[in-house]
Each structure stands twice: as C-alpha cells, then as structure tokens.
TrEMBL record:
Keywords: 4Fe-4S, Flavoprotein, FMN, Iron, Iron-sulfur, Metal-binding. The keyword 4Fe-4S applies. InterPro entries: ComplexI_51kDa_subunit (IPR050837), Nuo51_FMN-bd (IPR011538), Nuo51_FMN-bd_sf (IPR037225), Nuop51_4Fe4S-bd (IPR019575), Nuop51_4Fe4S-bd_sf (IPR037207), Soluble_ligand-bd (IPR019554). Residues 515-525 have a biased composition (Polar residues). Its cofactor is FMN; [4Fe-4S] cluster. Residues 511-537 are annotated as: Disordered. Residues 325-369 form the NADH-ubiquinone oxidoreductase 51kDa subunit iron-sulphur binding domain. It comes from the Bacteria. The keyword DNA repair does not apply. It comes from Streptomyces olivaceus. This is Ferredoxin. Belongs to the complex I 51 kDa subunit family.
Length: 537
C-alpha cells in the first residue's frame, strides 16, 4: 500500500468543536470568517498569559509536552535580563508521514494559530514572528493569512512576520533545526544543545512551540480558564487533535476532548474491532496491544500509564492479518534514511538497527534479537537531536509489544503473514527533500566520498575526532568503515580530516554531479532596545 496521507484528510469532531469550529461552514477560515466564528480577541499581559497557560495545564502539542507557562516565563526572563527583544516561532513543520493535525490547522484555521502567536509577541514585546512550514499548501495558507492581517510586508505593523519553508524531513521539525534554518543554515540540528529560551533565532531568547499549542492558547484566551476546563479531564483539560491512520477504513484528523476512550476513536475511523496492536504517538512513539486498548483513554497521562505515548497525536492500529515486525521494519528503514547524518550513533546506528530487525525476520534467531536490543540501547542519548532517541524507543517498543510474533520469527519459521504496508510513508518511502527557494540542498546527495587506505592506517583516531559524522572507532581502535558518503554540511571537516591524518591514510573523491546550494536570506538583526518589559503585570 504505502500510500501517503493527503495534506488535509477528513476532519471529525467528538463533542463541541473548539479548534475546528467553523470547519462545517467553509474549507478555510479567512480573517472575516475567523472573526465571525471565534469573535475578537483582547490582548493580555505577559503574566496573564503565563497564568492562563498554567491554569489550563497547557503543554506543547508537538510531542515533548513541555509546560508552556514555564517556556513563556523562561523566554521573558532571559529577554529582560539581556535587554533584547525575544522572537516568537510557530513550528508547523509536520514531517512525519503519520501526522496531519498541524497541517490541517494551518490549512483550515491559520488565524487561530496566529492569534496565539501574536498574543505572545504582543505580551513580550517581540518584533519578529516566524512560522516554520514544510509543505506548499501550508506555506500558501499561512502567507495568505499574514497578508490578510497586513503582516506580509511589515509596513502596517512594527512586527516583522514571515514564513520559513524547509524540506520535508523528520529532523526538520526539531526546534534546533528550525532555528538554524531561520538563521540561514541548513534545516538540521547544529550538533550542540542550547535552550532556545536563552539563545534562539539570531541569538535572541526565542519562544518556539507547536502550531496546535498556539491555537489552544487562543481558544483559552477567548473563553477563559473556567470554560476551557469544562471540557475534558480535570488535570488535562481541553481537546486534543489526533491523526488516525494505519489499518482504518477512513484516515482522519479528529478533535476529541481528553478522557474519551481510545477504543471509541478507533471505531470512528473504522479500525478493526480487535487490532493486533496500536502505535500511539507516531513513529517516535510506542505500541500498545489489543487488551491495553480497552483500558486507554485519550490523555497524556493515561497513555503513558498503559505503556503508550500521546506524542504528536498520531494513532495507528494494525489488523491481525499483517506481520507487525514486517510493518515495523518498513518504518525502521524510513527512520534510518531520515537521519541528518551528523552523529555516528544515528548515522550508523539506526541503519544497523533496521538491518538487525530484518535479520530477525529472515530467521537470524536469538543473536539477531540481542543485536537489535543492543543497538537500540547504544543510540539513545547520544545524538544531536531527539531522532535517535525516538527511533530507539519505537524499536524497543516493537520488540516488547509483539512477543508472540517475535517468537515465531526468532524460534520458528516466521508468522506466515504478509506485510501489507498499512503504516503510511511518503511516496516511495522517502520524504521529498528539495523545495523551491527552501535551501534543502544542504541535505541533498553527497558530493564527496571518503576512503580509508588500510595499508597506511595506523589507528591514530584523529578522523573520528574531526569527522564523527562518518567515522567511529571499533574496539581495536581503527575506523569501522572503509568508505562512506560525506554529508554536504560536513565536507569541510572531511577535507580537514584528510589533511590532518598523520598516516596519510584518507582520500576524498569528488562527485561534481550535485547541484550547487541555493542562497538564503538571513533575518534582519534584532533590535537591541529594551522597550517594554517582557512579562509585565
């Protein structure tokens, strides 16, 4: 099957709509219709926004679930301390094949997202707003929304707002990747972990959160914390946007109050009555088995309690008629291809884990199983971003959830079931990379290949220090690869590794068929004036 989800699949709602209000009236709420449906929105002070976020227990809806009020206060405090204006960034880079909730919101209710972002920008005195997207449809919708508000050219407002479009890649959605691309670099993690709240876009404190998070804030600011809390659970009030796909009759995005049984959500999408398993949280999420599905309700805490994850809100059941390890292998191979190629544990570890899972399916026995477990353990907490951690969590969950199927493959001749390809991937299994003017070429095909001459190598190890994206040292102290493609962003380091090798054991061969990188336009330098306080009471 391997059919990619459309940008805007069917949208359903359980109970009264909040984020999806007006979807039954028009395909896209332009500014006049948005105001008719949601009404005007009064500005709030910074501390009022922080208190509102805290009272409704608003957490980031991009997967990490970090409390929004803590992020808001952290950015404000850093801006006040340094005397600079902060930056607000909306992360609409929804690049996982199984997620479409943010894409739906940007395409159909862009002004609700802008409401939340502009509330924060006004409260903190920010003069720069950037909306990160990766799809042509989301770029068009958000640019149209900025134009409808008179923010597209910066002439009618002190706020500079623009859309940053990046390639469709799993790592593009990482906060550090988006910030790096806004600053003019490639849309990949920078290799060092720095809090955006302290130093983000242009080095300024940056409030960066997921598109749905800003939309939820706009709803709460309009109706107040009491009315907002009347929907959903006491400790996790409000609604949640879910993308339900996999073995379902109707892939869809559903807005549901927290507390709704997961089984009911699956029934709405036409899932099998007795699924073999349900992947919760997407491809950086966790599997739960059929028995656990009946215990789970839609909430972050409930899914975590039963071994699942809310993550980015993707829910994917599979039927009894397909091989769960084979379905998971397709995803593991895709996750390996999505590596940014910067860190050895990710660049080398994820393909090794996928090969290990393939060995299990091909009768590799207990040794193959132990190898997969070891590789998954080794890649965690060693990357420049969360991609290896999330991928390892998916692999470990796969091994843990399908014990019967695993035993059939490890100890027998396999489960005998086909791989139907019910878990959606992009066309051909890979995400599109290049975009017009998007600067995706930094992540494109390598133009260089580096080789190790084993007759000269003496195991000095400098290559692994200079070029860890390519080289790792084995137990014997020598590189573990004889040749490898060099990621484009690491080409300068590859040249340095060749020049500094004491044994002259490295060489580079150039492939000139690649396209030249496109130019980028950096953001203007941020104003250094103190202006207003970022969180004034």
């Amino acid at each position: 099957m391997n059919e990619a989800l459309p940008d805007v699949p069917e949208v359903r709602v359980v109970g009264l709509p909040q984020l999806t209000s007006g979807f039954d009236l028009v395909e896209r709420l332009d500014l006049p219709m948005h105001l008719k449906v949601h009404g005007p929105l009064e500005p709030l002070g910074g501390e009022q926004l922080a208190q509102l976020s805290e009272r409704i227990n608003l957490k980031g809806r991009g997967g990490a679930g970090f409390p929004f009020h803590k992020k808001l206060r952290s950015v404000a405090e850093a801006a006040i301390k340094r005397g600079v204006r902060p930056v607000v960034v909306v992360n609409g880079s929804e690049d996982e094949p199984a997620c479409r909730k943010d894409t739906v919101l940007i395409n159909r209710a862009p002004h609700l997202i802008l409401d939340g972002a502009l509330l924060c920008a006004e409260a903190m005195g920010a003069r720069t707003l950037v909306i990160g997207v990766t799809r042509e449809s989301t770029q068009r919708s958000m640019e149209a929304a900025l134009a409808e508000r008179g923010l597209s050219n910066g002439r009618r407002s002190a706020l500079r707002a623009r859309v940053q479009r990046n390639p469709v890649r799993m790592v593009t959605g990482a906060a550090a990747s988006l910030i790096r691309s806004i600053d003019g670099g490639p849309a990949i993690p920078p290799g060092r972990k720095v809090s955006a709240s302290r130093s983000g876009v242009g080095g300024a404190p940056t409030l960066l959160s997921n598109a749905e998070t800003f939309a939820q804030l706009a709803i709460a600011a309009r109706i107040g914390p009491e009315r907002y809390g009347n929907t959903g659970l006491y400790d996790e009030p409000g609604t949640v946007m879910l993308t339900v796909s996999g073995a379902v009759a109707r892939p869809m995005v559903i807005e549901v109050p927290t507390g709704v049984p997961l089984r009911y959500v699956l029934q709405l999408a036409g899932a099998p009555p007795n699924p073999q398993g349900v992947l919760t949280g997407g491809y950086h999420g966790k599997w739960i088995d059929a028995a656990t599905v009946d215990e789970a309700i839609v909430s972050r805490n409930s899914l975590q309690a039963v071994g699942g994850a809310l993550g980015a809100g993707a829910i994917l059941p599979i039927s009894q008629d397909t091989c769960p390890l084979g379905e998971s292998l397709r995803v593991a191979q895709w996750l390996a291809e999505e590596s940014a190629g910067q860190c050895g544990p990710c660049y080398l570890g994820l393909p090794a884990a996928a090969r290990g899972l393939e060995d299990i399916l091909n009768g590799g026995g207990p040794a193959a199983l132990e190898a997969v477990k070891q590789v998954a353990k080794n890649v965690k907490r060693r990357g420049a971003c969360s991609h290896p951690d999330g991928s390892a969590m998916f692999l470990e969950s796969t091994v843990k959830a399908f014990t019967d199927d695993l035993a059939a493959h490890v100890l027998g001749n396999g489960c005998g079931r086909p791989v139907e390809g019910v878990l959606p991937l992009f066309e051909g299994g890979k995400a599109p990379t290049g975009i017009p003017g998007g600067g995706g070429e930094e992540n494109g095909p390598s133009r260089q290949k580096i080789y190790v001459d084993w007759t000269l190598c003496r195991g000095h190890g400098l290559c692994a220090d200079i070029l860890p994206e390519v080289f790792q040292l084995g137990a014997d102290g020598f590189p573990t690869v004889a040749q490898a493609d060099v990621p484009r962003f690491a080409e300068a380091k590859a040249v340095r590794a060749v020049r500094r090798c004491p044994a002259l054991a490295l060489r580079i061969e150039e492939d000139t068929r690649g396209q030249a990188p496109s130019s980028r336009t950096n953001l203007p330098v941020l104003s250094q004036g103190r202006g207003r306080r970022a969180l004034g009471r």
